[in-house]
Amino acid sequence: MPPFLEKLRQSFIGREPLVFAALLAVVLGVWVVVKLSSEIREGEAPAFDARILKALRQPDDPHRLRGPAWVESTVRDVTALGGVVVLALVIGAVCGFLVLMRLHHMMWVVLIATGGAVLINSTLKHAIDRPRPEVVPKLTDVRSESFPSGHSAMSAAVYLTLGGLLAQTVTKRRIKLYFLFVALLLTFLVGCSRVALGVHYPSDVLAGWSTGLAWSLLCWLVARYLQRRGAVEQEVDPGEAVPVTKP
Question: The pTM is what?
């Protein structure tokens, strides 16, 4: 390996399998989005799209979800976790916390990750221009294009980025895993709710997850690299004071 590549590998990737796995996940996420985009633009929608949408509705009444009456209201509540208002409140609260803890560089990572996710998702929506599903009645109002799912992409980008960054502020493994588990669970539930409401095809959600995951992992890798160079705050044990650099 040429010396400059070896130096780059040591400084950015190092010898940690987790970082290598993250890079592979980024490549896989981009591949999934490119593959689905190509199929949809050629009019070859995945066969599972319609089947899953129909399977979630009552056989005798497609306007109702399977299960008890409270399921629909629960799904509406869950889908709000990926909406603009809730995500803006979450990001604002987290950024406020980071400012109070004087983790200013980490705050900028969160804001850049969020802004980048919005830009990527909007660009893909306009480029693919896929209509919303007509297989089953929609259970909520929607206006934008269908592919990829904005709720899925933004929840993946925001929650996974926050989970990854918060995991880097602690040293205990169980707390790191807890942050990541909550982020993955929220992302999964939001995506599933969009399909249940009939406003997205499953392939839209899969593309949204892939987009958000790839982008959040890229942000995590950059933050990790900057952290090692001292540009982003280091890990601390819970209860410890965060060291403050005097101007």
Answer: 0.80
